[in-house]
Structure formats: C-alpha cells, structure tokens
Amino acid sequence: MFKEKKRQQQEDITKTNIDILISLIPMLLVAFAVYEITPVLVILFSIAASEIADVIFSFILQKNKETLKDFSGIAIGALTGFVLAPFTPLYVAAFAGAMATLFGKVIYGGTNKKIFNPVVLGKLFVLTFFPSVLAQNSSAWTNSNIFRIPSEEVTGLTSFIVINKGIIGELSIIAMVLGAIYLIFRSRITWHIPVSFFITIFFGYYIASNNNVDVVTTLGEIIFMGIFVLTDNFTTPLHGFGKIFFGFLAGVSTIVFWFLGIQNEAIIYSVLILNIFTRPINTIFKPNVFGDEKVSFAEIIQGISFAIIIILLVFAISYLHKFGFIPYIVYIYIVYGIWRLYNNR
Question: What are the residue boundaries of the structural domains of the chain, listed by start?
Fold first, then answer.
C-alpha cells in the first residue's frame, strides 16, 4: 500500500511538472517575440544548471533514482529563469537555477519534502551574490535596440499583450492568463491563493498610493508570482481555507514590507516567511472526517496568533534587511544546506 501510494504521488508530481512547463510556453513565445533569443537562453541556462545540480547531488550522491523522472529539476530551472530579467548574464541565470534546486529541493531529499519555495530561493541567491544584476537601473532589464515594438505603442490595452521591461515571465499579461487557465483546467492550481493574494495586494496598492508610498513592484510580476510561484504544491497549504489564509497573509506581508521601505525583495521575503508556516496552517485548517471545511472559533484564534507572529517576523526581517544582515542569514542557510547534503549523501 505504501509503495503504491508513493508511486502515485511520484506520477502526480511528474504530470504536474509537465503541465507547469506547458503553461509557460505562451510566456516563452512572447519573450522570444519581444527580445529574440536572449531571454530564451537565460531560461535554458537556468534549466541546464538546475538539472545538472539535480543529477550530481540527487541522482549520483543521494541515489534518488526518481528525481530525473519527475522533471522537477527542469520545472524549477524554468520557473527560476522566468523570474529573472531578460538580459541577465547567463552565468548568473545558471547560478540561480543550480542554487534553486540544490538548496530548495535536494537538501531536503526530494520535491515532496522541501520547505522553502526553490524559485524564490534562487532569486534570493541572485539578489545576495549579484545584487547589481537585478538592480532597478540595471541594463539587464531591457534593451531598446532589440525591442521589436515601438515604446510609444505599448500603452493602454497593448500593455496587456506585451511590455518591454520586467521579469521574463511578466512580458505579457495575456500570456500569463493563458497559462493560468491551462493550470486550472488541468487542476494543478486552484483559485484560492492567487485570488486572495491579488485582492489583498490591490487594496495595498490603493493604501500605498494614498500614503505616498512609491511601489516599484509591477502588476505583471505580482500576477506571475501569484499564479506560478505562490501555488507550489509542497510549500503552500493543501486545503481551501488554508490557501486563502496563506494568500492573504502573503499579500499583507508584502504590503507591510512596502511601507517599511523594502521593494524588490518584498514578495520574496513574504513567501519565505509564509513557507515556514505551511505545515502548521495545514494542521489548523484541515477538513474534518466528513470533509467539511468549516472553521471553528479555536481555529480562528490559532490563525490570528499565526498572523501576529508572521507580521512580527516581517518587522524583524525588515530591520535585518536595513542593517545588511540578510546576506549573513543566506550564508548560514548555505552552511546548513551543506551539512544536510553531507548527512543525506
């Protein structure tokens, strides 16, 4: 029975990763149409490095024979490539893909055991070791000499079809919507996290604008993160109310970071904080024996307690960020990851 259940889970992971890759095709085509081969190479280098890290550390060292069958290294690498700038140096893209898989999946022994979202970790590693690459004024974001559509034409409804600046995944809102529709049709994601996240964030935009807070996070990046990153199966809650709670608090955390002066890393920090609480959230907001998802008063109190702790962590992380301590936390995590690799070999 256990072997059968494990085999079924492995098949589900494989099918999910294949569907994720299919859902990314519209965005890949747009990226190629906008900036020709460069962003495609960024994604391919991220995928290649991710898969190489998976082969070396999972397949060879950990003897995990299933890791190459579930396409997880390819999916992680692809998604990591899509959250980078279109003209990210290829060695940086490769670094991001390798770090995402190695420290997001491999150190925990597999896709179904990971704690933190690998894609978010991959981008955090880039921001830590190559901060200038994804800086706002970096040349990695756009190239007017290659962009095939005149900038004056990218206005109004046209901006939903294609834009000329942002992460690779956000160059077309229409392409993202097509990918989302496919994933929902295939039952790979549900509406709970994206909708609760988007509604919260849009209220946050309104509040920020009325308080003269300059938000640099783009609508496209928020949509991409909400659909393709926050919905990761094993680092987000399993059940409806838990998903809504997760999406809502990810949005609230992001807004608080904005007000505290943190922009580029706001969503990244929020997701990583929420990842820590995924398993406790699953414990609180789980259906009863009859499948009923009604939330009791005790569960509401527990949820409020978690929300308070999460917001306190947001303030703590913001102070660590302002005083430049986040890189040291990343270094400590790397040491922890190496220790886990050594013990799991």
Answer: 1-188, 189-345
